[in-house]
User: Fold these one by one.
Assistant:
Number 1:
Amino acid sequence: MTEKRPIVLIAFVAGILLLAGNMFVQSRLDNSIRENKLIDEQFVEGAPPMVAFTTVALGGFRGLIADFLWLRAISMQEQGKYFEMVQLASWIMKLQPKSTATAAYLAWNMAYNISVTYSSPADRWRWVNKGIDLYHEALLYNPNDPVLYKELGWIYQHKLGNILDDAQRYYKYQMALRMITILGKHYPDWKELAEAPATEAGLKAALKTESTFFIEMKDAGYDSLDQLSEAFREAEGVFPEKLAVKMKNKDEVRLITNYLRVRWLRDATMLTPSDILRVNEKYGDLDWVLPESFAIYWAMLGIEKSPDRKSVDCSRMITQSLQVTFTNGRMLFPGDKPAENFLLIPNFSVADAVRQSYLDAIQENPDIKSFRDAYENFMSRAITTMYSYGQYTKAQEFYDYLTDHKKNRNTRLPFDQFVLKHWQEEIKDAGFKQANDMINGLIFRSCVLLGYGDKTAADAHLQLARMAYNRYMKDMGTESRTALPPFSQMTSEIAQACIRSLPGEIADRIKAQLLLEAQQAPAENKAENKAETAPAN
């Protein structure tokens, strides 16, 4: 026994030292985990009951069960039993709530692989939505994971925003229908919604102490805000009339309506009005029925969640989405309600943000000429596009920026000549057919814009058509065989063709505007004569 005592003592001391060392290392690891947000604080207590149960009770067995469910999910997909896969995916997520790769694959699989097995746009939209919902669930468990934000933004940018899917117009229509139903209008007051209460506790705090709302709510048959919210959604965003008539304070009706909209927006899309305001303030007033706006939103949050607040993928997503927004960032409908025959036109409110993105690239890469060339090409296109949509002040502003950028080059032209150069160069060398097609295209686009209610853009397109017509007739229209018909005849024939071929609401709006212009004929003729005599360059 005496011989073993030194060994026991040494082992005891060694055990104490190892335990102390383990405690020291564990303490440093815990600090590192908290500092780098590797595990979300209060994850288990804030997680859904099933997730909390599997996290605490099953322990290491979660991985074995998840492996079995993965095999089952693969088998279901091979057999085409896709709906069974939805429940399996949800179970896998709950067993592996911290696995970003799991969530990303399952969601991507639904949005891309499964959706394209259907030919119906409605069926495809259902599966793309299920993929998005799975990303939402993953974000509840991993709110600080930048990869999830990037992947969700990619679904909006590529799957919904791009034109590669045959059902892409249906996707955009459904997005617009959902957002306008939730918000009550196409362009809501985001500041007002951002100030609205987002929780039941916030609503109670916002109501005055003498408010009788909760009594009136129960008298109307709603025992809780959850029931009221459900009724509000079933009525497609209309405040229940039987409750509204009981409420004397109309300001309270507005406050509660905004609360219901904000709650619905968060539940359906995970968007918050306060973050939307931040996006708009940084990049411009986006049209929040379009997928590019969502892509920018999620990419911005992805950058904020990234180490050092930097993410090349998210930054690239924002830049690309802004460029698409500039050219196709506003959705117009033929009537007051969303329709699948929508029209996409430029959103010039993001022009400054797009321009700044090019300047940032030039500053970061001063020796790469392609960035400067890309900037000049964008500015030239932006100026002509803004001019063609009647944004003359903004086009002049960008023209001044461009000439300052090219101040050491002998390329400056007067503003009007610069804008028309693109059109006139094509007209100058065009034959009869090319000139006729180009001018007819501008007139047709003018009629379509008129039918969708954008008269400013319609007038600007018509003005460009008239200038192109004048240029062609000056250079090529001197002989009868190459002369175009009178401009008034061309506009009348195309307008009548549009009325015959376009849907009823669009055609009716064109007819109403033509009738109004006919009644104002003297003033219009003066303006036309003045334009016809303008010098062509």
Number 2:
Amino acid sequence: MIDNLPKPIALYVEAENTGDVKLFDQCFAEDAVVRDENETHEGLGAIKEWKAETKKKYQHTIESLKFLEKNGKNIVTNRLTGNFPGSPIELEFA
């Protein structure tokens, strides 16, 4: 785990690894929008449902490998390991 992750991102990693979807309350705004696997999840409730479903389906964990701030954006590179083709995979989140 990277020591300099902002608190919401560190909580996101914890939520992903523990499956505690309640932690997402501290990571996403009520009106947040997430796009993943060609689907859009709008609002905190929809995001929490989606995260619970993906955790059950993929049984994944994440490890933050790199964090930087660029042009006012937080960019995190994570390694995802789980029950999906190509595991493990490194993905960049902004």
Number 3:
Amino acid sequence: MIAAKLARFAAEKGLEKAPQAVFDQAKMGILDWFAAVLLAVKKDRASIDPLLKVVKQLGGKPSASIIGSSLKTSVTSAALVNGYSGHLLDYDETTPPVRSHLTSCILPAVLAFAEERKGSGRDVLEGYIVGYEVALRIGQAMTPGWMREGWHGTSLFGIFGAVAGCGRIARYTAGEIRNALGMACSMASGISRNFGTMTKPFHAGHAAKNAVLASLLAKEGFTASEQAVEGFLDTYSWSGKPKTEYLENPGEPWGLETPGTINPKLYPCCHGLATTIEYGILIREKYGISADGIREIRIYSAPKALSAMHSQNYMDNGEPLVWDYEGPPRQLLPGIPGTGKEAKFSKEYGFAAAFLYGGPRSEDFTDEAVRRSDVQELMQKVRVYHDCELDKISYQYPEGDWPYGERFVIEMKDGRVIREEQIFVLGAARRPLSMDRVEEKFRICASTSGLAPGRIERTIAMVEGLEGLEKISQLLRQFRLHRQE
């Protein structure tokens, strides 16, 4: 039984022989996630306030911290709010092999569970690593049909990792973790039609909260089918049988051994825009051209880079995007956003904003920023195409390489034609980001949120030495910001 096998792994697998790369990449993911949460609390508090209001109404034992505030709440509500905040700006890491954002489901649950139990930094680190492995393996076992059918992998897979991590921290038996994993099969949810709204980040918070709830219920003797995971995989693997070989020997090797498994973002938007933004900046700087001189911008993308794009899962004739389409490139429906949240999933906006203003910041994903006249004018010149040749190239590489290939053709009014191409996303296995870049991101986000320089440097040091931290509350205390709640 798959659930029993994963449960034994979560309960019993030792990390003594795990390569140092596993711990290094885990710490990168943890620090990166804290950066995303802190910036979200500062820059989009209006989207967090409704959740905080409801959490206060629900009440509960105040045993776990809401990051970026002075509030404590119940362990389930803390997981919900922190998971939501971590994914709110779409600035949290991506897991290329399963095209998801696993940390925003796993870490909030693990932190809340550990804090309530007065757990250590080592507890959190182990829970996160074990949970990440379980979520990754579940995602890899699924066939690509889940994305084509409109599901959101972040919450679909992340809940399993969060359950495994909670069970590890609380020293649950394998039987208790197995039941919690079975419950997670009925709790996993999230649809891509909600991208570009407040509900997309809610998927992550909801998964974290449900993982905590399932874990608490399992401890009280709540049961689930021993074959629930098999049923889950069969249900969501539309395009073929699940690849259960990924579930045979979790931790052999560890997913986090591979560079780029955790892929931090440089921009607060969907990772499908990473190369679009990178080349919007590069083309302007390399060729010294202006927006006024451009006649047309054509972006040719592999479907993997289009799967989450606003309005761009459809051809120009309104038919759904066919992933295995053969033939010449096909133009897609325009993805001109109407709001800042929609802009996070628009290739037109990603290229235009980057070309005109450089690397987008959180301020560039507001309703006001979208309405800028120069951005609106340049977006109208962008055409996005599904290119089956880029599909073929991308399938030559493993998912961990993040082969979201894109070609750019810029036609100038003076007759010049500019061409650029990139196969691999920055930050993935073939173009990895260093911990130094993540520390820089954290310093910027934490400073913007109002954390004092001393706290910022203490936080970085605590994460780097997480296995030696006596109480995880020592780390969480650094994020208390005394604002009017």
Number 4:
Amino acid sequence: MADVALLKCDEYSIDVLKEKFLCGFELIGFDPACFANARVALKPNLLSAVSADSAVITHPIFFQAVAETVMDFGGDPLLVESPAVASLKSAMHESGYDVIIQRLGIPVADTKIARRISFLDGRLLKYFEISAALYDVDMLVNIPKFKTHNLTYITAAVKNLFGCIPGMRKSQMHMRFPDKEMFSEIIVDLYGALVFGFDKPMRMLHVLDAVVSMEGDGPGSSGSPRKTGAVIIGEDAIAVDYVATLFAGLDMKKALTVLYGFMRGFGVSSPDEIRLKGEKMQDMRICGFQTPKTTGMTAFLQVPLLGRIAKDLFVEKPVPRENACTLCYECMHICPADAIDTAVSGRMTPRFDYHRCIRCFCCMEICPEAAISLKEGVMQWLLREK
């Protein structure tokens, strides 16, 4: 059984958040005394260099409250994160994390240094290159932001661990596993590797920032912040994500990292093994939470010829908008398929090669100006639910 705490929290206040955390720890039976003398990796979501209020990243005050809680109980925190394209330094500066890190004296891991972790029970991948710093810690506190995701439907505790893979290696994963089913499988493989792949199983605590979440075309700046007023805490990432998906009123069948997590048995194997503590779900559930526009019909992209034809007919494509694009070329730098090139003379947007495009939507995720929109495939109307 896995206990998950669902707590009401309407503001980013250090004192209020720390009180909620301690309440949540007690509800799930987590003793914060285990932080004493422990080297604790803190893994927020610092996807890109954006402001604190964008809902793209874990709010810096939320991160600070977690860090101070660890330190209050004698823990030695270490920030471990690897943004998609932007340097960690620029992501921390833009969001205000750098001020917090300096004030609290928290060291920052060099995530460019990677080390292999093997996991023979992986379904699609038996090993990963992860931040070497994770081999030097006693436990991992995962601090994700709850958001929608154009490829995986949601990103919360399980998906946030993808940031343990250094830099552009993440883009390589998108190229190798471009459809949402396979990509979700490797995310669950990574979770299994982080839990069971070390010599001693890695103890994890997941503290989900859902005070302000992201709805719509997340997980980047194309999504919209929405006040949801919650903190969700648990030691099982699959269970935490199940509760978060339920809380947002989303379609559980589309949350593949949760479904695959149940099937793989890396923690709980069904909702029946999850005990909700704290607030009642009916009192907290969000109404009308907006989901991504993508259909998720991507499995056929692996089929030669069929994939090229079908993706143009049935899958959305990312299209840059001239009235918003600043030609920063962040999209070009992150594209794993090399499907984006510099603008031609007279055009104010990069060139997209849709034959090469694998529809991973990394460009949309990383665009700092929310300048990339989705355009439906010609025959996509046939896939809409009646």
